[in-house]
């Protein structure tokens, strides 16, 4: 086979491998949803069930975690659960749909700003395969939960609308959608303002600076209107947040210690996004791809002549990343890898721009194909990892969580209680065979008002029914202390299942509040 046919095959193979890598994540969501289940993800999955059983509305009795989310996989999962009555499959389908929606939005945006099909597809999929960090990265927008789906969805949908305006195309339905999205994000909290609208304002300001502050007369009107719109959307999102959101946390400035926090906490947290599970070879390829992407994106912003739309979107992604970095460093914001999630999408677009700018340059043609090979290798690593760790080794059906649920079912016990780390996980891993609800501690047995429903606890449920109490070595002594103080309650049965100590009580001792 000659060199030319080989080069023609490389992009085809890249597209195929990229699609397979994404398919692995979708397959894991659909058929192995509980493989890497944790308490927070399980709680959000149960929220979908609660919404479905409450006529597709969030129950007034539901205790949220950090905020009420309106654009969220759990809401879509609730609609699916309404028909399927399967927690795992409903949320798996919902998260898979969210993956596809994000890829479609990114692809549409990148095509709209003039990127080629191959570059657009690569830029859209790379954020999903550049990391193997399931918990801190993929869980944010891909696997199991999709906590940041709403922010990413609005960011790219708004970007499509903004690009039209930047080109001078008036889009009244788009403006209405942009306003609605700003209000919905504002109702969810501050993330919309910080991660969508402020970055777009900053990006437009830098673009104007690079263009000589709107020096080109025929561009002044478009950029000025877009700037006013960005500020208005930021304001509406912020005001809605202040009025409606229940998930606002107080922060204060941290100017004096900001640089120390940046170096010692923030930057190390960003590095966790690229946790390659000690696979040093994969880390080398990811490092090369990331470095080339970020450096080339800066080159194309400040040196290379690109159209305004490409520069605007590159700048917006940079700003979405940097605004959160600065917020973590120079305020008392919590430091966590998930706040840097836009870095993965910046890398994706940087790769896409690089491919676009090198594919037809004869002297750099070899660089293009080398870069495509890098993408193929990263995609293979991602697909193999997801298959091995989320699909092939999924033992959730034989897990200790499922065994506890089956034991409850065999003993005709419908309700159980455990601490937060285990309660909802048992429910979701068993796919609702038995339901276990969270308590604050085994020494007090009060309701934990976090990803829970007050209807799960007396006095809103029967105080005389048999219930299970699930403890571990760490909490068993606390339960014994509680039991000794409430000797009128009879232990009907006890057993040990793996790390759990399981009890069936003659009545329900749990209370919603600390009043007995």
- The helix count comes to 18
Largest sheet report: 5 strands, mixed
Query: Regions with pLDDT < 50 over 5+ consecutive residues?
Result: none
Give the termini separation: 81 Å
- The share of residues in extended strands comes to 5-15%
Integer average pLDDT: 90
Radius of gyration in whole Å, from Cα? 25 Å
Question: Which structural category fits the helices and strands?
Answer: alpha/beta
Secondary-structure element order, N to C: HHEHHHHHHHHHHHHHHEHEEEHEE
Share in helix: 55-70%
How many β-strand stretches? 7
Strand order of the largest sheet: 3-2-5-7-6
Shape: globular
What does this structure look like?
The protein has 18 helices and seven strands. The chain has 516 residues and is α/β, with parallel strands linked by helices. The chain starts with a helix and ends in an 11-residue tail after the last strand.
Task: Tell me briefly what this model is.
Helices cover 62% and strands 6% of the residues.
